[in-house]
Structures are given as C-alpha cells and as structure tokens.
Amino acid sequence: MEDSSIIIYQTEDGTTKIETRLEDESVWLTIDQMAELFSKSRSTINEHILNIYKEFELIKDDSSRKIGISDFSTKPTNYYNLDVIISVGYRVKSLQGTKFRQWATARLKEYIVKGFTMNDELLKQAGGGNYFVFEKIICA
C-alpha cells in the first residue's frame, strides 16, 4: 500500500479511540477495530462481513487486504476498507452503530443536497468563525 498514514477516531464521550490506517484513498480497519468501533463482538463483525461478500454487496478482492509487518513471526492481518466499514455500520445493532448510521446518513444527505460535504465545526475553528458564502447557480 502506498502513502500510509495513521488517523485517530475518538467518540464524543472519549470512551472509544481507534487508530486507523489511511492508505490508497481509503480508511482501513481490522475486524477487532470494527468490533470496538461498533461495540459488538468480533464474531458478530465477522458474520456481517461474510454476509456482505456472500450477498455480493462488495467484492472481497477490492475491499480487503492482508497487511503484514516486518516481523515475519507475526501473521499478516486482514484489513477492510471504508466500503466494508460503512456496510457493517448499516447492519450492526448497537448504540455506536446507530450513531454511525446517523453520522453517515447526515453526510450522504448533505452531499446529495449541496453536492459536497464539509466539517463545519473544523471550518469555524480554523477560520475564527468566519464563513464563506456559497451561491447556488441554477441552470435552466
């Protein structure tokens, strides 16, 4: 994988903190990380992933990778990209799963309505509270 970096996701209440891989224009998590993210067991997450592939919602070769480390005594780990994370998030039944679905649906709605999505809070913090005004151009 190219251009690897680590990003950290933390829940609002600070109880869950997950370091994720950001590579090849996607976020990558292990089953254990998804289990922590959605507050579900590893076996539940694995079952959802198997069903995602069984139902041809996603293609395994396109959405998962084995990533090893330089220590050859350690077995490579399966990582799953953002497509799998989103699909699992829409299947799990937990409070964290519900919060994830609310967040994902809000981003999707914003993108469909505006044509883009922004982190408004980050924009406020970075710009001292000043907003840019975007005008919509409607073509007939």
From TrEMBL:
Superkingdom field: Bacteria
Pfam families: Virulence_RhuM
InterPro entries recorded: Virulence_RhuM-like
Protein name: Virulence RhuM family protein
Species for this entry: Pedobacter cryoconitis
